[in-house]
Amino acid sequence: MRRKRRSIVIGVAVVALVLIGVGVIRAVTRAPGQVPAGRSDHTIDIGGTERTFHLYRPARLSSPASLVVMLHGGFGSGSQAERAYGWDKQADAAGFVVAYPDGLNRAWNTTGGCCGPPAENNTDDIGFITRMVATIGQQVPIDANRVYATGMSNGGVMSYTLACHTTVFAAIGPVAGTQLGDCAHPQPLSVIHVHGTADENIPYNGGRGSGVAHIDGPSAPALDATWRAIDGCAPPTLSTQGALTTSIATCGPRAVELITVAGGGHSWPPEATATIWRFFADHPK
User: Fold this and answer.
1) Which residues contact 240 (CB under 8 A, 6 or more apart)?
2) Residue-wise pLDDT tens digits, 151-187
3) Residue-level pLDDT at 15
4) Average pLDDT, stretch 47-74?
5) By CB distance 3.0 to 4.6 Å, which of 4, 81, 94, 285 could disulfide with 145?
6) 73 phi and psi, to 5 degrees?
7) How far, in Å, CA of 222 to CA of 224, rounded?
8) Short-list 77, 64, 125, 113, CA closest to 216
9) Between these two residues, 149 and 32, which has the higher pLDDT value?
10) Which residues 6+ apart lie within 8 Å of 125 measured at CB?
11) Is the pLDDT of residue 33 over 80?
């Protein structure tokens, strides 16, 4: 009986220590300034639904640091976007934080009928991403004037949705995306848009694409003109280097830029990450 009682006591003590350990781990990952260097996984509750994202924090971090939200495309994920687009390497070089959120069913509800189950179920992706940014700001010293969103395809469309319906971001950098749904009262912000002329999923010249979502949006040049008007920009200047034609319009402290990739398809160009980051770094709120 003594041995049995001792075993029970030891077992309870072990369980208590494990539970305390879990509590300590959770406290450390949630405490301000304590997100570890490298990759860390996070979960937040949005209206009773657990939403996931992970962060990449470089070993050398500017303080306060910029935050880039990288939005994956349809059928993608935060982990896939991290592997595919090179933002961790860029963060290491410049000392900023990257957030990689996961869309439910591998898609984003951008409004305007896109995309998939998140649109059908009216998933609150705007609420999720804005809450995620606020949560990160409680854990890492983030400069609220240097929060940015970029995304590929469906993620690029989502970046426009955030620009239209939040005041969180200083600039957005959609790649192979478009703007859908209502955008009645957007706050002026800087925009850099990268798009290939041979994109069939989200056509450069607008109209219905051939992809699974059949996205039907304005042309890239028309969208560029829309945001120049929103920002009150001067007329744009054009330059061409190889396959790239760049239209840049200055708008006081902001800018609106369209990079057209001649013959480019529905893809993330090799230099897009470095180009978008340079634009972000030059355009805080």
Assistant:
1) 246
2) 999 999 999 999 999 999 999 999 999 999 999 999 9
3) 33
4) 96
5) 285
6) -85, 175
7) 5
8) 113
9) 149
10) 103, 104, 108, 109, 110, 118, 158, 161
11) no
> Mean pLDDT throughout 112-135?
96
pLDDT of 75 reads 96
Average the pLDDT over 3-15 and give the result: 36
Residue type, 145: N
Query: Where along the chain do its domains lie?
Result: 1-30, 38-282
The first and second tokens of residue 211, run together, are 């992809």
Q: What confidence score (pLDDT) does residue 34 get?
A: 77
Q: Are 259 and 246 in contact (CB under 8 A)?
A: yes
pTM summary value? 0.88
Please tell me the least confidently modeled range out of 188-192, 198-202, 205-209, 212-216.
212-216
The one-letter code for the residue type at 254 is R
Q: Return the CATH class of domain 38-282.
A: alpha beta
Cβ-based neighbours of 60, under 8 Å, separated by 6 or more: 92, 95
Report how far apart, in Å, the C-alpha atoms of 245 and of each of 32, 177, 179 are: 43, 17, 21
Q: How many residues appear in the chain?
A: 285
